[in-house]
Amino acid sequence: MTVTRYKQLAQTLRRQIEAQVWLPTEKLPSLRESSRQSGLSLMTVLQAYQLLESQGVIVSRPQSGYYVAACETPREIPQLLHAAEKIDVNDAIFDILKAGQDPDIVPFGSAFPDPTLFPQPGLARALASAVRRMSPHSAIANLPPGNEELRRNIAQRYAQQGIDVTPDEIVITSGAMESLGLSLQVVTQPGDWVAIESPAFYGVLQAIERRKLKAVAIPMDTQHGIDLQALKQAIATYPIKACWLMSNFQNPLGSTLAEEKKQQLVEILQENEVALIEDDVYAELYFNGERPVPLKMSSYRQQILHCSSFSKCLAPGFRVGWVAAGAYASRIQRLQLMSTLSASVPIQLALADFLHQGGYDAHLKRLRRQLELRQTAMRNMIIKSFPVGTTVSQPKGGYFLWVNLGENIDATKIYQLALGQGISVAPGTMFAVDDRYRHCLRLNTSFEWNTRAEKALLTLASLVHSEKSRKKQSSTL
Ligand SMILES: Cc1ncc(COP(=O)(O)O)c(C=O)c1O
Hints:
45% helix, alpha/beta, 17 strands, Aspartate Aminotransferase, domain 2, four-stranded antiparallel sheet
């Protein structure tokens, strides 16, 4: 889908004004001149000028023409990412992830759920049986879009929620990471603009860097999620091709959008013809009895690429995900054929078999209960042991807590000190290209709450206390 022509022209002019091609109070080309240069009709140019006028970027003077407003303030846009800045973020992320791989380290910084929470024996049986039953032709039969039974199973789960997704629009991938990457590739060209969340899952920043895209980061509220006014402003200012976000249990904040906000968000995207990549990998991990609905459940669903996987809720190591790609399904399949070819066949068969046997919902029920108990235990201890002024999120699902240590505490320093004591944490700098979350930490709550975990959390708390006292002392000197 393309942005309407007059909006494209308005965005081009706005960018030129920001870049000072046209200075405040300077006269813009006349409608006729602009129409000749752009090849657009006079009416389209007039609409573009009127749009900029309504945004206060330019003013019209009767009998004279259009002028740049005296004081244009386009720099209200929250945050821009530039390719050079992103490279640093990726380096840091790589080091932090590597540190978290050591089994002797307490994995509060990990993105993976506790592997002991999953039905390993049942999955092993399903896998052994899948390998035995595999026909010589199954590699061909399960090429993109992927195993039919598995796709039907996934479609049935959408249907149970009242979401109209057919098996034909589902493409099975190697985890959500592949489905998100393919989705980004299908809706953008290098150099395009994408709207993302701030803070965002670091996989978003990496994928954007790989695809050589530009991004506008939209501020998030820990409780209420994305700032819709900022999103509107970003869309009015930049030629945004796609938006990549999480409406349920956002990583790292844990926020879930209210139903009404979900609707408003879809309306904004629909009105501006912006495609949506919806990352919904934590949606099955809800605590309050009802699966939160995705944005995919809307009249805009053909333009929504709904990405998820079994990595967080059933089989972390299997690397099976999918995208319900709407209008983009066949293009996603082609891209997959050109890159990874397909997800592993025996693993797809095993998951299809496991889901068919039943028992998935009973497992999910147990998993949600465990995750909720563990989150409560860790959260209570943070409240008791961290310095006054610390705030901690309270997500109603997933397995992350977002801890704000207070503006003057450097969480990257805490991360380094903690690592020295055998504890990993995910510092806020992993979730943005600049250091605006320098004072925040993301903690993984999925692991067993035992003496080792308690001790590690108390150590972390004492590191923060010491850092706070040190800061206090140095500010009074
Ligand atoms: C928000 C988010 N999206 C996507 C992924 C990747 O999922 P998968 O492991 O299925 O590739 C992760 C994994 O940490 C994640 O946190």
